[in-house]
């Protein structure tokens, strides 16, 4: 029986009041954790909360939760039930971070509290927060070279941390002692568990006011309501199949060549169906996804096109997915390393789903958004005699894709977690011996298009008094560069530079671990902008001029990417002027040659890059060539794959 066949037992007013009360109970958990957490990472909103019913199905997630936790919390709740069965009692609190039991990665630790009424479980409250370190081989627990979870940190299968309201200090101490910041971890553990008590209190308050039977019925009807709304929304949509492909940059064990993630979407009148079974085998690094996070990416990507629908298991019932057998990059299974899933398959799946739904709901169409990235620096803080261990853990905002009728959002949270806040540098500098030297909009980072992508950001810093310190970076899209659609062009590659502009300059790339750094070393990295939407030669020239004035586009790239020639009368006072005659000729010339550029011999392009005749943006946007951006070495297989993508998404739409 589907939800549309079930009769409601609640009057509409009571249902609406309780549906919103459930949302409030979850949001109160979030407010509690914000006020009591110890970790700067969790304080920057890398956490989520949920209320589940007695069967572990999600009744409501928080209004500010990050996307990556969507669709995983019910898996973890069910894992606790499977593990403990009838041995669950009032006052118990359980911990779990197991990515092979529906979790995300080891850093995301959940605390789950059963809610009892009259001796019976009526629900579960859960809070999941990202611990800055969970052990493993590198500070921050993000080891690019990990091939199994044994290098990544402490795997917490379902374990009881409170029994009947009594804190099991020995169990908690065992967990936090496997991290590099045990005091911080213990504080977060206590804060997260207490947050679940807030939700329990609110649910029992509702029971007291409306009765147990009414609250339990409302939990079920809230899920049924969401399923009904989604299925009804699909009724007027076209039926059929749509397919796309996106890539990870590489599998180190296989050498050069991007790793495909294939997505098929089917609408058949009975729901939304995905098939990712054609994706590549698991890679030899930590950029794999477990089944929980792949489902999360599917749900979060789809939910973007249904923004007004509450999020719970009713939504999950309307969406089915075949992710294939264990052992693939989207269903890695034990013991494959999966910590980097967030920069790996997760946002590739989301952006692929955006592309598919853009063809079904063109009014909400959007090109590719920038890829989530993390930079981690850990070691001894020499600013005090005690040389305390520090953990600098940073992520950046970036650009979202251009849209059907407007430019993409600039300097925005990643699609991975739209509620994720950029960490204030003042707080970072107080806690860590790392100074931020610049943090600014990155010129020319937006993918060109009739509606350009949003701009990315560049951030650079300097290490001050450090000892025995290493740096790691988790990202991607150094080769599978953030793409445009409907004729739009790509953004810029990700990657970190160490001591740029000095004799010690070194390009470290978009994924690396355990690189030794010393006091005085500097680093910088860009986040990509979003891909462009539509042919850049169709962009209004006045809009290009405004972008130049705002510092989003350089005069050089205005001509190269948009064919708009701008005279600089007095840049100091933003006195620029469009040269209409030269603009018309430049656009005509680009139209006449841009298909030829994609046929140019890749090795010739690589040579010109190495000789300084071409820059990165020309190589990517004009010639569709992928290189090792540090050495200029041609990546032939990646180039072939990249050009295929560029032709499909861009050049086939050009006049």
From TrEMBL:
One of its GO terms (biological process) is glutathione metabolic process. Pfam families: Hydantoinase_B. One of its GO terms (molecular function) is 5-oxoprolinase (ATP-hydrolyzing) activity. GO terms for cellular component: cytosol. Coiled coil: none annotated. Residues 11-536 form the Hydantoinase B/oxoprolinase domain. It comes from the Bacteria. PANTHER family: 5-OXOPROLINASE RELATED, HYPOTHETICAL 5-OXOPROLINASE (EUROFUNG)-RELATED. This is Hydantoinase B/oxoprolinase family protein. It comes from Pistricoccus aurantiacus.
């Amino acid at each position: 029986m589907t939800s549309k066949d079930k009769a409601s037992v609640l009057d509409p007013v009571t249902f609406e009041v309780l549906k919103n009360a459930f949302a409030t109970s979850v949001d109160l958990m979030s407010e509690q954790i914000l006020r009591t957490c110890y970790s700067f990472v969790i304080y920057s909103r890398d956490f989520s909360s949920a209320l589940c019913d007695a069967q572990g199905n999600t009744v409501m997630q928080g209004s500010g939760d990050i996307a990556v936790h969507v669709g995983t919390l019910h898996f973890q709740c069910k894992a606790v039930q499977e593990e403990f069965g009838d041995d669950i009692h009032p006052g118990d609190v359980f911990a779990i971070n197991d990515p092979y039991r529906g979790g995300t990665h080891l850093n995301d630790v959940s605390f789950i509290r059963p809610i009892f009424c009259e001796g019976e479980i009526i629900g579960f409250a859960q809070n999941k927060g990202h611990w800055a370190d969970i052990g493993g081989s590198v500070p921050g627990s993000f080891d690019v070279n990990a091939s199994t979870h044994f290098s990544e940190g402490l795997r917490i299968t379902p374990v009881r941390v409170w029994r009947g309201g009594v804190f099991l200090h020995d169990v908690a101490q065992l967990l936090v002692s496997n991290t590099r910041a045990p005091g911080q971890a213990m504080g977060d553990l206590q804060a997260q568990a207490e947050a679940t008590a807030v939700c329990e209190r609110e649910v029992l308050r509702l029971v007291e006011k409306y009765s147990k039977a009414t609250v339990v019925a409302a939990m079920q009807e809230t899920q049924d309501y969401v399923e009904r709304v989604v299925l009804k929304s699909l009724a007027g949509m076209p039926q059929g199949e749509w397919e796309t492909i996106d890539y990870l940059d590489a599998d180190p064990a296989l050498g050069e060549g991007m790793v495909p993630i294939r997505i098929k979407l089917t609408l058949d009148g009975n729901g939304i169906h995905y098939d990712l079974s054609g994706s590549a085998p698991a890679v030899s690094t930590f950029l794999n996804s477990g089944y929980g996070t792949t489902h999360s990416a599917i749900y979060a990507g789809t939910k973007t096109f249904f923004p007004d629908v509450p999020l719970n298991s009713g939504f999950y019932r309307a969406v089915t997915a075949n992710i294939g057998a264990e052992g693939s990059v989207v269903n890695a299974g034990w013991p494959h390393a999966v910590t980097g899933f967030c920069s790996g398959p997760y946002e590739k799946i989301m952006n692929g789903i955006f592309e598919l739904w853009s063809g079904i709901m063109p009014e909400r169409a959007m090109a590719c958004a920038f890829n989530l990235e993390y930079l981690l620096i850990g070691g001894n803080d020499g600013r005090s005699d005690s040389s305390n261990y520090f953990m600098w853990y940073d992520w950046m905002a970036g650009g979202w894709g251009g849209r059907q009728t407007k430019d993409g959002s600039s300097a925005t949270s990643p699609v991975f977690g739209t509620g994720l806040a950029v960490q204030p540098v003042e707080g970072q500098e107080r806690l860590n011996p790392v100074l931020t030297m610049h943090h600014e909009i990155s010129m020319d980072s937006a993918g060109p298009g009739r509606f350009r992508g949003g701009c990315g950001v560049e951030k650079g810093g300097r290490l001050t008094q450090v000892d025995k310190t290493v740096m790691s970076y988790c990202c991607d899209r150094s080769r599978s560069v953030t793409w445009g659609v409907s004729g739009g062009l790509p953004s810029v590659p990700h990657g970190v530079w160490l001591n740029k502009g000095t004799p010690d300059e070194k390009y470290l790339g978009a994924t690396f671990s355990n690189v030794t750094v010393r006091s005085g070393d500097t680093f910088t990295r860009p986040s990509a902008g979003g891909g462009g939407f539509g042919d850049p030669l169709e962009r209004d020239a006045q809009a290009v001029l405004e972008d130049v004035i705002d510092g989003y586009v350089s005069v050089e790239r205005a001509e190269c990417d948009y064919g708009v020639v701008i005279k600089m009368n007095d840049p100091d006072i933003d006195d620029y002027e469009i040269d209409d005659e030269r603009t018309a000729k430049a656009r005509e010339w680009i139209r006449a040659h841009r298909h030829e550029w994609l046929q140019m011999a890749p090795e010739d392009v690589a040579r010109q890059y190495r000789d300084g005749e071409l820059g990165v943006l020309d190589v990517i946007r004009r010639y569709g060539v992928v290189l090792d951006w540090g050495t200029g070495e041609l990546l032939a297989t990646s180039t072939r794959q990249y050009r295929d993508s560029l032709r499909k998404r861009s050049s086939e739409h050009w006049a």
